[in-house]
Amino acid sequence: MRASKGDHLVQHGRVVGQHDHEVEVVEVLGPEGTPPYRVRSENGHESIMSPGPDCQVKHKEERRR
């Protein structure tokens, strides 16, 4: 997985009825765009995240379309 500052990570719900959780990448801490990432939720909470296989990257360019 590779992401850049400004990309969004979408962690899909794991059980029926659980919503997807989307966060914005504010800093890439790994080499060449690899995890871990410092991310910010809609409510302003920041954390460090190493996404698993249930996570998808929405690149800035994809979201503009």
TrEMBL record:
<protein>
    <submittedName>
        <fullName>DUF1918 domain-containing protein</fullName>
    </submittedName>
</protein>
<feature type="compositionally biased region" description="Basic and acidic residues">
    <location>
        <begin position="1"/>
        <end position="10"/>
    </location>
</feature>
<dbReference type="InterPro" id="IPR015035">
    <property type="entry name" value="DUF1918"/>
</dbReference>
<feature type="domain" description="DUF1918">
    <location>
        <begin position="1"/>
        <end position="57"/>
    </location>
</feature>
<feature type="compositionally biased region" description="Basic and acidic residues">
    <location>
        <begin position="56"/>
        <end position="65"/>
    </location>
</feature>
<feature type="region of interest" description="Disordered">
    <location>
        <begin position="1"/>
        <end position="65"/>
    </location>
</feature>
<dbReference type="Pfam" id="PF08940">
    <property type="entry name" value="DUF1918"/>
</dbReference>
